[in-house]
Amino acid sequence: MSIHSKGRGLQVYSVLYLLFLYAPILLLPIFAFNSGTIIAFPLQGFTTDWFVQMWGNATLRRALTNSLTIAFSASVLATCLGVFAARASTRFKFPGRGGMMAFIMLPMVLPEIIVAMSLLVVLLGMGVQLSLLTVILGHALICMPYAIAILSTAFSSLDRSLEEAAYDLGESKWGAFRLVTLPLVMPGIISSLLISFTISLDEFIIAFFLAGNEPTLPTYIFSQLRFPRSIPVIMALGTVLVLLSIVLLAIGEYFRRRGNARIGGSPTGGLL
Amino acid sequence: MTDAKPMIECRDVHKYYGDYHALRGIDLTINGGEFFSLLGPSGCGKTTLLRTIAGFEDISSGVVLIDRRSMEDVPANKRPTNMVFQSYAIFPHLTVAENVAFGLRRDPRSKADKAAAVEEALGMVGLKGYGARSAHALSGGQRQRVALARALILKPKVLLLDEPLSALDRKMREQMQVELIKLQRQVGITFVLVTHDQEEALVMSDRIAVMFEGEIAQLDGPEALYARPATRRVADFIGVMNFLPARIVSDMSGVVTVDVDGLGQVELPASQISRANPDDDGIVIGFRPETMTLVAVGAAHTQPRETNATIDEVVYYGDMTYYDLRLDGVGQVNGKPRTVRISMRNVFGRDVQEVGTRTRLAWSPGSLVLFR
Lengths: 272, 372
Hints:
Structural class of chain A: mainly alpha
Strand content of chain A: under 5%
Distance between the termini of chain B: 37 Å
Order of helices and strands of chain A: HHHHHHHHHHH
Helix content of chain B: 10-25%
Largest sheet of chain B: 6 strands, mixed
Oligomer: heterodimer
Low-confidence stretches of chain B: none
Shape of chain B: elongated
Number of domains of chain A: 1
CATH class of the largest domain in chain B: Alpha Beta
CATH superfamily of chain A: MetI-like
Largest interface: A-B, 20 and 25 residues
Strand content of chain B: 35-45%
Largest sheet of chain A: none
CATH architecture of chain A: Orthogonal Bundle
Number of domains of chain B: 2
Number of helices of chain A: 11
Mean pLDDT of chain B: 91
Strand order of the largest sheet of chain B: 6-7-8-3-9-10
Structural class of chain B: alpha+beta
Number of strands of chain A: 0
Distance between the termini of chain A: 35 Å
CATH architecture of the largest domain in chain B: 3-Layer(aba) Sandwich
Number of strands of chain B: 23
């Protein structure tokens, strides 16, 4: 077998792999613009009705608003707390640091259903009303490990004498952090916001357990899948979400590369 | 130029990290306008002492005064000191000019005045016209110059330099040593340099404090430090010193007569007597390789004493040749013949001698130091 034909085999494998990965997602926009109500080929005619219907659906709009509110709040919360934890764990030595960081990172591998169930039991036991706030807290909890993993890398690659130098040159401690550390870890912060936002946006289990009567996008989509006639609308919604994800990722990657170029780093180690 | 006015005073400064005693009673006065070095092996506390002066480390007990003012409760950002860090700590997201102007943020001067000050500071370190460049695009030597300009623009009373030359290659390092000396003379600011490189300390400093294990072992000018090391450990750390076993014959009114293996009996005044390390066994005399001369058999010399020897090893360095000699009457150490190292400048017309040659060593008792 020649090297050439071996390469051909690998090429075929790569194409098949990518098809399996992305073909189902590509079907979303196709059926979102298809006028037939049944999700099957052959396609009928072109229509934008599903998008109009989607926009006219008050519950869906509410689910979207809820999801965006939750994702925004949870990602900001997780990233802020992540900044504290990452800075503390990379800059200072204190007793129990290793154990503490391990416990903070644990939710990453803990089955989500266990986290969701235990949170529900505790919240109900404490008499807390289930609301968007409880989902935000739950999502911040599961986003934290990712935020800290990203931010720790950003902080640990930072020379600690940079902050000292700024302090030595007359800045306050906060000024040194704001003027030197923050701009240098900004790519990490943006990555963390982005990842947390995406994790929260499509999270189902915690949202399902902790949201009370409020719908989020994933719980809404799940509830609608029982009704075949609403599936084209879900397809339209999926199309919007895919576009939104791509745009968010592109923005995040743009900022990360720009930040990296400014400090002379190589354009590697990011999401893309 | 140094004046007698004390700029930095440390009085019985102690520093503990938990149980670890990093600084053990440092007493030190650094004068205004002095180029002062803290020299020692890694872990000797020299960087801790520098960071203590800068205000990055609290002291456990004692007093630090800068310009006669107690630095207790004065944080690093309020002290009249600025620091050049080992990594230079250039802010990579700013331009060269923004880096240099960083400390001027709270300065009430106008934008134009500040820009002029930045340009002047850059000119001082030989980086005129580099202001608009990105800091991350600079070479190591240029980064260091930016770090210097960034500190000096604030006109501190003391400039602290933490191993500033260790990241540079040899040629660049030697060039920067000379530039730093010139710069220090030009600005007249007190420089305190931390280094583990004894050569660098000797080249650059007015005075040097040699530190071991959190204590100052000797504080002296470079020549005194080199010629009259206070302890055997200092002698070992700075340059090369040969040691030969000796026995005290008599000790009268400050003059000690010793019998040295290979060299015979010599009388040494108190100024040539230093302390041995407590854990060293026995009394030794020491001498530097360049203080003795190799003389061909039969040739004349002007030194008062001479000793016969055999050349054991020859190391040729171009400008210098090192000879390891077995002196007649010197025994073995660890099963090998005990040798002493002599360095000779390779002047035109003097041949490098060969291994095994019988030769004579001409010397003067004035070059010996007794460690007892």
